[in-house]
UniProtKB/TrEMBL annotation:
It comes from the Bacteria. This is Integral membrane protein. It comes from Streptomyces tubbatahanensis. Keywords: Membrane, Transmembrane, Transmembrane helix. The chain crosses the membrane at residues 16-35, 47-69.
Length: 71
């Protein structure tokens, strides 16, 4: 149902795959930015990297669901 609504809204599997790859890059950027920009230390940087890093599997899964729906 959700996948059907997203597909009808114009979201395609390629969009979800692109978002997944971009989120992997954002993981590295957020981790490095947190290390350099905050005084909280490595623990906080690791948490930022993990938080953003969890988006990629979600987007890949959504891309797979949309790809199956598109077939």
């Amino acid at each position: 149902m959700v996948v059907k609504k997203l597909h009808e809204a114009g979201l395609r599997s390629e969009h979800a795959y692109t978002a997944a790859v971009v989120s992997i890059g954002l993981t590295v950027v957020s981790w490095m930015g947190s290390i350099k920009g905050e005084t909280a230390g490595m623990d906080r940087a690791d948490r930022w990297g993990i938080f953003v890093g969890e988006w990629a599997p979600t987007f890949f899964g959504l891309g797979l669901a949309l790809a199956q729906y598109e077939d």
